[in-house]
Sequence to fold (333 residues):
Amino acid sequence: MASAPPLTDSFGRIHNNLRISVTDRCNIRCFYCMPETDVKFVQRREILDFEEIERFVRIAVKLGVTKLRVTGGEPLVRRDLPVLIRRLAAIPEIQDLALTTNGVLLPELAGPLYEAGLRRINVHLDTLDRARFAQITRRDDLGRVLAGLETVKRLGYGPIKLNAVAVKNLVEPDLVPLAHYARENGFEVRFIEFMPLDAQSLWDRGKVLLAEDIIRVLSREIAPLVEIPDRDPRAPALEYRFADGVGRVGFIASVSRPFCLNCNRIRLTADGKLRYCLFAIEEDDVKGLLRGGASDDEIAALIRRNVAGKWEGHEINSSRFVAPPRPMYSIGG
Fold:
């Protein structure tokens, strides 16, 4: 298949960013993502294998995809993940390869992943308080996550970002400690407004700790936050730096300041469905084509149709919003 025009939707947005979920399984149970028990996972035979993922990516790069992020579920529970990372890192057109993890398995896997070619990593961390960590994740693994962060820092990963979900009346005591921890270690903390993607229908707008409220707290308690000019307008995070020159903070304000009009992402779920939005109601079956003998051109045509049908935005703040039928862990972070 020859090189083709870029992936552009009906609103003129060019898509070069592919997020790949490699599993819907996870080794923790964050209350805003998964139930504590009786979680329904996809059967293993329905999960894309590494050859299928690599083939899809090689088709997508011919359409202009240059950025990849590997997600889950928890991607590090996928057996032999460094093998996939090595394959993806070897694709010449890929300019940026990153991974999002909860960090529990990083002490063992940070080294093999680095050797495979991974350099950029986001680690999910809502709190530095052991009791609150256990309350949120229903697991007592804070020590392992912190050890994993020490390992990736020592190995030379960069940038290293911390993802913290901002749930109102829960994480307020963690804002300043997390920001201090990030400043002291050269990490960037990113606060993500709580989104309606949980498996238990716990979300309502009143439980969202807004980015503007976090900015106010950090500016008062640490140092004024100054918005970084000339940032990539297609990046999902609003980026700030502390006025004293030490550290940066990002905000993914999907509820209060949606970035839909600049979105450049498409998503491949672990079970082989293509989605143009995290909140999409409909999705296209890539796995059926991959396993049904379809040509590269047929798969490329499906990708183009998916992007062409992309909506203007998710409408969280309108009465028209409908939550997706899949929870976050099933879609891919």
